[in-house]
């Protein structure tokens, strides 16, 4: 049984840090979020160095994505989202928020599908919790009122093909939140997102994924707002060298 219901995507640009920003966020700010009653897990990714040039698509503010913080929310969903905003205020008042980055997007999306590649050897419900080297993040908006044929194609044909690409561990898919009572800060136009979790180097794995990803928009039922790789800022020693 999966405990995650919604995700919070917090997107910012790649600004030169005034402080040791990543260390503060990973060791101070992000752990504090586990006070939230429904927080299941949290992950951070960055797109620096060669990563921005490798992205497949980027439009409007999302073209400048340099950081993603991904919070996985279970029940109580609405209360957890409310307390997420309140906690940020409290930490800032306590001097525990030394640097604010320029926000590019804050969205709450509902988890709709979850997948694991056979090579991952874990269930699809825990793919994000399994250590990985990075992700490919895809954010799309529908161009038609009814995109159910496109969503069905993603589920039955596209994602199975993606899972067969070497270096892919799994994927989670999201759509606009099923909780309209959330604070307006989390809501917006209809949107879909996919996070593809990678065991191997994200830039190298993306080369094998690109032909498949470009097929997502061939039908014209959706268009990309962002599609590109990000890496985890944490180094793991779980893989042989």
Descriptive account of the structure:
By secondary structure, this protein is an alpha+beta fold. It has a single domain, classed as Alpha-Beta Plaits (2-Layer Sandwich). The chain contains five helices and nine strands. Strands 2-4-1-5-7-8-6-9-3 form a nine-stranded antiparallel beta sheet. It is globular, with a radius of gyration of 17 Å. The model has no long low-confidence stretch (mean pLDDT 93).
Q: Which structural traits does this protein have?
A:
9-stranded antiparallel β-sheet; single chain; DUF5753 domain-containing protein; Alpha-Beta Plaits
Short synopsis of the structure:
This protein is of the alpha+beta class and 241 residues long. The protein has helices at residues 21-32, 51-54, 77-93, 148-163, 202-214; strands at residues 6-13, 39-46, 57-58, 65-73, 103-116, 134-142, 168-176, 192-198, 222-231.
Shape: globular
The largest sheet, given as strand count, sense and whether it forms a barrel, is:
9 strands, antiparallel
Indicate the structural class: alpha+beta
State the helix count.
5
The secondary-structure element order is: EHEHEEHEEHEEHE
Sheet with the most strands: spatial strand order: 2-4-1-5-7-8-6-9-3
Mean pLDDT: 93
Q: At the first level of CATH, what is the class?
A: Alpha Beta
Total number of strands:
9
Tally of distinct domains: 1
| Content of β-strand | 25-35%
CATH topology: Alpha-Beta Plaits
In the predicted model, the low-confidence regions spanning at least 5 consecutive residues are none
| CATH-derived architecture | 2-Layer Sandwich
**Fraction in helix:** 25-40%
Q: How far apart are the termini?
A: 35 Å
Radius of gyration: 17 Å
């Amino acid at each position: 049984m999966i405990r995650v219901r919604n995700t919070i995507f917090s997107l910012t640009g790649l600004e030169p840090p005034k402080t040791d920003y990543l260390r503060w966020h990973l060791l101070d700010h992000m752990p504090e979020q586990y006070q939230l009653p429904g927080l299941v897990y949290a992950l951070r990714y960055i797109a620096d160095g060669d990563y921005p040039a490798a992205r497949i698509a980027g439009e409007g503010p999302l073209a400048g994505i340099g950081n993603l913080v991904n919070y996985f929310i279970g029940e109580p969903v609405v209360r957890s989202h409310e307390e997420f905003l309140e906690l940020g205020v409290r930490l800032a008042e306590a001097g525990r928020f030394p640097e604010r980055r320029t926000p590019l997007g804050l969205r709450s999306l509902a988890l709709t599908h979850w997948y694991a590649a056979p090579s991952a050897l874990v269930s699809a419900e825990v793919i994000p919790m399994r250590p990985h080297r990075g992700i490919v993040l895809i954010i799309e908006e529908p161009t038609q009122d009814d995109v159910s044929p496109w969503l069905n194609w993603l589920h039955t044909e596209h994602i199975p093909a993606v899972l067969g690409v070497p270096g892919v561990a799994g994927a989670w898919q999201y759509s606009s939140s099923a909780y309209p009572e959330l604070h307006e800060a989390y809501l917006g136009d209809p949107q879909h997102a996919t996070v593809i979790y990678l065991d191997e180097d994200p830039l190298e794995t993306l080369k094998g994924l690109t032909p498949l990803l470009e097929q997502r928009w061939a039908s014209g039922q959706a268009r990309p707002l962002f599609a590109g790789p990000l890496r985890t800022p944490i180094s793991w020693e779980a893989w042989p060298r």
